[in-house]
Fold:
Amino acid sequence: MIPQFLLTLATLCLLAWILRQRLIIRRLRHLQQRQRDQDLRALAAARNERDSLLNAFPDAFLIADAHGLIQHCNQAAMALLGPSPFIDRTVLEVLRDARLATPYLECRNTGEPNAAQIHLPSEAAPGRDHSPGSGDSVWLVDAAPVLQATGAPHVRILLRDLSAEHQLEQIRKDFVANASHELRTPITLVDGYLETFLDAPEMLDERPAALRILGIMRKHTGRITRIIEDMLLISRMESGDASTLRMEDFQLTECVHDIIERLEPLIRAQNATLAVQFHDPGISLHGDRFYWTQILFNLIENALKQNLQPGLQVRILSEACGEGLRLAVVDNGIGIPAADLPFIFKRFYRVEKHHSQNQIKGTGLGLSIVKRAIEAHDGSITCHSAPGLRTSFEITLPRQATHANYPEPLADLP
Ligand code: ATP
Ligand code: MG
Structure:
């Protein structure tokens, strides 16, 4: 017979052992929970770090799983592709245009990285910066597999808008092509005359003919010099260096009268009338007088030289515009066809159809210089034309470009 107290002792020991086991299990569970919490916190921190790294990229960045469903995207992608949630939507749904998805599909099919530059018409471009008619948009789409610990690899897609670089490159190419063309024409002519003289030096003895040819050569070298000077001026303005402007206060009336004096022979030869109608004769501008002379000279000269028939009227107007100023050069000449208006401020653009451009001197750089010079003064210029009736170039300037105290704004420019 086991004594009663031994049985009780054994039961107590058993109970104590069970209790201890339960305590150990609870403690283990607690430690496991703590470990899990720590792991979750570490995971969340890693995710945050990854997100902030990806969000620091200016390019749109997406990750698609093996089924082509988006699993991650950065802020740039959301800003570009719209605010609707992308997660678990297909790549094609999110990119919208199948052309943009081509590198992704290639990468998924081959398992190899794939990148391409994709040209889209502005209306098909993602994002809101591409207004219709603003030319092709160009996108770099770069897709590459992201290796997974298990299962099929995910694909990361990078989307970069190259439109601005592409446009700049296009402008540069056009500029080089146009400039070479414009320079080659007079150089070829001068070269031709020089060759003639070298082949037949006796021509130099016929003084009147020789002088006439030398005069023509001089005209063409003058044209080359003008093109080079204009190109240097444009490149100085395009350098964006504000220090290229020599800012001073000057009287606009004086500046305009100097220009009219220079153009006097042309005005008289064409029997044109010029009227200066400033709302305040004492207007003073704060700007670079050299550039303002270029601006107004080119606008007035254009009006005169494009209209060789007598009786042309040119008016130079000013009016207050809010706290700023509006200037206009208006003529009643041949005008500019509506189809040409969007292009006249582009370098080397000249309206060919209605104007006998062979007789009218010019390189087509004048208005692009005008536009850049006005923009350098924080102003803007527009052109309206009703051919044969009224062609006006209107300049709007902000307050800081003007110094006079203007009266209340006038009605629309007459
Ligand atoms: P440049 O000024 O370099 O000597 P340009 O006068 O031909 O050459 P812009 O001043 O840039 O070049 O003008 C571009 C074109 O716009 C002109 O060739 C002309 O066809 C047209 N144009 C400009 N102003 C007028 C105007 N007042 N009336 C009619 N056509 C104009
Ligand atoms: Mg001109």
